[in-house]
Amino acid sequence: MPLATQHADVATADLDSALRGGPFHVALRAAIAARGLPLQRVQHHLSRHGVKVGVTSLSYWQQGARRPRRPESLRAVRALEEILRLPEESLIRLLTEADGHPSAQRPAARTYRSCMEASGALDRLLAELGHPADGGLHTLGLHERVRIGAHRELAGRESQHIVRAHRDGVDRFVAVHHGDPGCAPARMAVEALENCRTGRVRMHHDTGVLVAELLFDRRLRAGETYLFRYGVEDGTAGTSREYVRGFGSAGGQYALQVCFEAALPARCHRFTQHSVAAPRGGRQELPLSTLHHSVHLVEPRVRSGIVGIAWEWE
Predict the structure, then answer these.
(1) Under 8 Å CB-to-CB from 123, ≥6 apart: which residues?
(2) Which domains does the chain have, with CATH numbers?
(3) What confidence tens digit (pLDDT) does each residue in 156-206 have?
(4) Element (H, E) at 269
(5) Interior angle at CA 223, CA 219 and CA 229, nearest 5
(6) Which domain of life is it from (predicted)?
(7) How many CB atoms lie within 10 A of CB 84?
């Protein structure tokens, strides 16, 4: 066997071992060595992903002298997984476990790649329905109640919308539901509960995205308000660890309540993201009502981006 091939096999074996057992700095060093990239090239690739990290910081990370902790640094780690062709969440998992949160307990955020795939699927489904990006409605208020079932699954949710039309002729709203990893959209059900009826339903099985038309009883005039309520029965995936709501533009009040039908999580927190590519921020611990088995947040005026609640199971 040629010497270069032997070295490559050893480097790959070292990397596989480091990714399984860590620690983080050993896995990072092994990944960089396996790809044969100098730190200057790694920095260059990161800059192309919109992430700025100095060569000195990268050197400290792979030596174990420092650990990435800030949101921008964690965003860099996720980019490194892609640059170094590593499994998604492999480096982030090692960081999380080192901080005392085993991977089985940590909130499992959807990966950047899975969110982007879901976004692409959503665009295609909306195109099938002939629904424009601007549906002609502005959200004045949205209240959601999410149910976590006896087996810790996302059992379903109810959403009540208060909207105002900003053009004449709007007669429908397209609801979007993104199930947890492993869900089965074909087994979900959309139910019109108040002031609407269900129209066409489309789904994308690989990403777990479901969209449904909710038809109003009349066409709205510009400036007219409307209130409607609908539900989605899910219960088709495994353990749920977060609920996320995205807003394409700034809007009115958003209230989210998560109700646990059986077991209670150990901790809950609020988080925000400017986009699926951005690091999570706005973390705030939320009190859990042990009497009512629920946790909630209220955003008086939502901004464009993402807001959600994550929880950790014992």
Answers:
(1) none
(2) 3-98 (no CATH), 112-312 (2.60.40)
(3) 999 999 999 999 999 999 999 999 988 999 999 999 999 999 999 999 998
(4) strand 267-273
(5) 60
(6) Bacteria
(7) 20
